[in-house]
Design brief:
Helices cover 12% and strands 54% of the residues. The chain contains two helices and twelve strands, in the order αββββββββαββββ. The longest helix has 25 residues.
Length: 248
């Protein structure tokens, strides 16, 4: 006895599986975009010998550099990104970014008395970064959305120019990583293009350690960008095959 119903059921299940696979792949890619950024960064120095310098008042590294927070340094960054997910409210965003960081410092004339120069020098660092975030996307609203980002930046020190506290500031590692938390807002512009703005807090998770000194960078980043998304499907969109008569 032929197993036609069973064969038909097997073919039906196979067809559903293939269609679901195509649908999942189509939904996985959410969009891509570009951004420009204003960066504001500073360095936090901690001299680990500060507590014992009174016992050894003439040992240089007890006093240099002193524990302090640098003055803010303003620069810029830019990047490209892509967004992926099978869900609307939780996404993965991956980026390539060119970012400038640094600090404005007043060098010490006399480390034992704390006398400083009257002008600021700048320690500059340019990074090429691969940033990866979990993006918590608020699905409420048809076009405009609030969202939050949390992730890690993998950083390559492309070039640097350190003129103040050089024994420490000129010896940052070539490869590093930092954390990132951000809040963003996306809004429609035209057709499938959306604008967005984001505010990022980007601190070092682990401090750079150089002999008796630990240094941590902290950067705020204000972004403005453009993202292109797929056309939103309408309720009447349908790709079901149509019967065109026996001639077909």
């Amino acid at each position: 006895m032929p197993l036609v119903p069973e064969t038909n059921m097997r073919n039906f299940i196979l067809s559903i599986t293939v269609l679901c696979s195509f649908y999942t792949k189509a939904q996985f890619f959410k969009g891509f975009g570009i951004f420009g950024a204003l960066t504001e960064s500073a360095h936090y120095y901690e001299n680990l010998d500060t507590e014992i310098k009174n016992d050894t008042p003439y040992v240089f590294n007890r006093f240099y550099p002193q524990s302090h927070i640098s003055k803010e340094y303003f620069k810029w960054g830019a990047g490209i990104f892509a967004e992926f997910s099978t869900r609307d409210n939780l996404r993965w965003q991956t980026e390539l970014e060119y970012a400038n960081k640094g600090a404005k410092e007043m060098d010490l004339i006399n480390p034992y008395t704390g006398d400083r120069t009257g002008s600021f020098g700048v320690n500059k660092y340019t990074y090429i970064q691969w940033n990866n975030y979990l993006k918590f996307y608020n699905p409420i609203g048809f076009d405009s959305h609030w969202y939050a980002l949390a992730g890690i930046r993998l950083e390559y020190l492309f070039r640097s120019k350190a003129t103040v506290f050089t024994p420490v500031s000129a010896n940052f590692p070539k490869f590093w990583f930092s954390g990132d938390l951000a809040l963003g807002y996306e809004f429609p512009l035209f057709k499938t293009f959306y604008g967005f703005t984001e505010l990022h807090w980007n601190p070092d998770i682990i401090r750079h350690t150089h002999d008796n000194v630990k240094v941590r960078n902290r950067t705020f980043e204000l972004r403005v960008g453009l993202v292109k998304r797929k056309k939103r499907k309408g309720v009447d969109d349908c790709t079901a095959p149509k019967y065109n008569g026996p001639a077909y």
